[in-house]
Write a structure and sequence with these properties.
The protein has 199 residues and is α+β, with helices and mostly antiparallel strands. It has a domain of 138 residues: Nucleoside Triphosphate Pyrophosphohydrolase. The chain is 22% helix and 35% strand. A hairpin with a 4-residue loop joins strand 6 and strand 7. It starts with a helix and ends in an 11-residue tail after the last helix.
């Protein structure tokens, strides 16, 4: 495996994601997978654009994922099942690197984010019913200093930081941007990724 992903996997295993503890708040389980793919020597992250007609998260940029089914033994099963349903990627084509901090959403979901590296030879077949567009964003573009911007938003009577990343024609925000921020902060501390960072 590419040394960048060996280091990333080691870092994620050494500091597993924190579980949410929000007493009095009932959150439904969901999970996503932040999928990396190597194009030559260029590591990229895959995102999906939700169709505009969706009732939930319409038109938003997301990682592949969804609500945990009763048949899913774990949230990792949820993330891998959703990846296969949305992008046609079989589970055996994913090397799971680890897990990031759980994220609460304003729609009262607990999102458990996993990180994976896809076999570069796998054919991506987005489900047209669930995916309006598939985005492959070079990690170097996401590591540009100052790319992330923050706005203050009020929710449940408290002020919260909301993150935004511009990726080409699209903006990544909300829970996906928070997961991305956590992932990039792990990468920022890894020497093997130095060459990937913008000069």
């Amino acid at each position: 495996m590419d040394p960048r992903f060996v280091q990333l996997s080691q870092a994620l295993q050494q500091h597993p994601g924190r579980h949410l503890h929000l007493p009095g708040l009932e959150l439904r389980d969901s999970a996503v997978l932040a999928p990396f793919v190597l194009r030559g020597d260029d590591p990229r992250l895959l995102f999906t654009l939700r169709p505009a007609h969706f009732r939930r998260h319409a038109g938003q940029v997301s990682f592949p994922g969804g609500v945990r089914d009763p048949e899913d033994p774990t949230t990792l099963h949820t993330a891998l099942r959703e990846l296969e349903e949305e992008l046609g990627v079989p589970q055996q084509a994913v090397h799971v690197l680890g897990m990031l901090d759980e994220i609460p959403t304003t729609s009262e979901f607990r999102v458990v984010p996993y990180v994976g590296l896809l076999d570069p030879s796998v054919e991506l077949r987005p489900d047209a019913g669930e995916i309006a567009e598939l985005l492959e964003v070079p990690v170097a573009d996401l590591l540009v200093p100052g790319l992330r911007r923050t706005e203050k938003r009020f929710f449940r009577g408290a002020e919260h930081d909301v993150y935004f990343y511009d990726a080409g024609r699209h903006t990544i925000w909300g829970a996906t941007a928070r997961i991305l921020s956590n992932l990039l902060s792990v990468i920022a501390g890894l020497p093997a990724w130095n060459a990937t960072r913008p000069a």
